């Protein structure tokens, strides 16, 4: 029996979280400051959302725009505070100046996130060699998902890469779930499902009024209807 496709929705606050849950989202990506493409939210926001909804919540670990880790010691402290606030799933991803994965930063965070599941986010789309990045992270504890558009320019550009990687899922280095996001539109979904991809991530698509407006339960429900109950 095929499994249900995962629909993850970006949430900024409790109102977003409640609407996404009502529309049929399976999981939230909790961030703040979308002008910087999503930064780490406050511990207070994490507590409020954990109290408001009963679906999975992945919390962003990113303190500044871009894909450099920056102050790793501060990231480690923040991750600990977020865990104390109830966070048990996370999103992170860091590259060095050469476009390779910043293993030192990822290792330090993975240590404080022991026992948590986490996503390596769209830093993979800016990597110098995405296959090499996946190989280096293949057995990293807790890593179960890659959020990717297949290319830095978004899903339109990256669709061939996504389809190729979707067909490789389960092979060595390709065990993690592909969560497709970054310019994702409903018309992309049939081809992605056909490639075996069963993770979908939406932000602006869930907000008819743009980022200045809230998540719409109706918009999320349209995505849930297209994805159906199985992938």
UniProtKB/TrEMBL annotation:
Signal peptide: none annotated. Coiled coil: none annotated. It holds the Pfam family CutC. InterPro entries: CutC-like, CutC-like_dom_sf. Belongs to the CutC family. This is Copper homeostasis protein cutC homolog. It comes from Streptomyces griseoviridis.
